Fold GntR family transcriptional regulator.
Amino acid sequence: MADLVYQRVISSLKEKIDANVYPDMRLPDERSLAEQYDVSRSSIKRALSNMSEQGIIFKKRGSGTFVNPLYLKQDSYFNYSGSNLGITDSFKSNGQKPGIKVLDFDVIRPDKDMQDNLFLQASEFVYSFKRLRLLDDKPFMIERGYIPIKLAPELTEEIASDSIFNYVESELGKEVNKTYLAISAAPSDEEGKKLLNLKSNEPLGIMEGIFFLNDGTPFEFSTMKLHYKYFKYDSFVDLDNH
Amino acid sequence: MADLVYQRVISSLKEKIDANVYPDMRLPDERSLAEQYDVSRSSIKRALSNMSEQGIIFKKRGSGTFVNPLYLKQDSYFNYSGSNLGITDSFKSNGQKPGIKVLDFDVIRPDKDMQDNLFLQASEFVYSFKRLRLLDDKPFMIERGYIPIKLAPELTEEIASDSIFNYVESELGKEVNKTYLAISAAPSDEEGKKLLNLKSNEPLGIMEGIFFLNDGTPFEFSTMKLHYKYFKYDSFVDLDNH
DNA sequence: CAGTGGTCTAGACCACCAC
DNA sequence: TGGTGGTCTAGACCACTGC
């Protein structure tokens, strides 16, 4: 895990921050850190830049680098982007028992859009499946997923009734570690009313996106319709860089 | 803004992507780009890395760099990929004329939650204001905001009817550059039906969050209720960083 | 094997801040 | 003015892909 220089630095600095090694909330300057860790300043910068994106520290040009006081308060506000819910197969369940019911499972030809989304040729096939997800036997999400068969040739309905991403990790030696999500809301549709027990004034939360493997390959295109009470998405956004 | 090398590269590459200069969705390799732009490979890497974080492209080690197909289709109001506006006072308006109507404007004592959110003592006051945002004179969002008076002592209703963040930047010499957002959805309430012309089966998109200054100070706590048709949020998530 | 992106280094110079 | 973070360079070497 920590075989990369900047990751080692991040881990170490986090530990020190947590252990209150910097009671004045100020970190040593970058050049000193480079010397302390015996690495280049560039690597220190990479580590600090990463931590800044995570909201752990703030950098002030000309002044120094400081710990974000809210980070120390360990509020629920630093659950970094999307970690609250729904990004992976394993939804954070808050002690509730998660379940999955596969509603259909087929192999189809992708249409043009799907070919674009998953970087496929017209001749390649994809799995298409619909799953109902439950917490304590109560349905909260309908999911339609598409996965190229070449990326998971042995995928079965049984695997889909468990965690597909865990399967990818343990059996295929790959990892799903990035996702591009488009988030929106819509009035409940027939399916939502029927499967999620929504009243007609109660909405659906919609998450649509592509999941990527760690080598950058688009692995799954997924449309998730959530019961609005289970729909919450946290995001920490850096407005610079844009 | 475009006086920085990597920002020039980003702008240029974005334009080329939008102009479909790469119909096979593949960008030139980093070394070629460095040569083309007559900059170092490090600067190209910085530009591409930034674009990758924004979800515009994704990189495949050993294979190349590719355009994210979902980026080309996006039409979000809250994307922080396509513009330098992002989730600030200035919503991306797609050519529509934005407007702001201040519905109320007061100074109040923060309750316990607000004290925590804005890092305040019980004795400190905050501005509380409600704003209706419009596009081409059509209301699309109701916003309730709270700002500590000590952070913007001269704030007025008139400033609030324009861009508060622009005021902070130009008059106070600070910058709002980070935000934590919690995103959800809810059935339309009375206010939403009345001010946003929602039918009772049509939902609200909810964005609640804290905006930070560049020194890490929490500047504003805001609750935004959006007409669901204007509610779309794009997010590119790295599942590793935790 | 050639080509691609990933990591890391060493150092130059710039922009900003506080004294 | 001295110290800080920000930008940029030039290049070495590694890890992975695909023929």
Observations:
- Residues 78-91 of chain B have pLDDT under 50 and may be disordered.
- Residues 29-31, 45, 48, 59-65 of chain B lie near DNA strand C (CB under 10 Å from a C1').
- The CA atoms of residues 105 and 157 of chain B lie 6 Å apart.
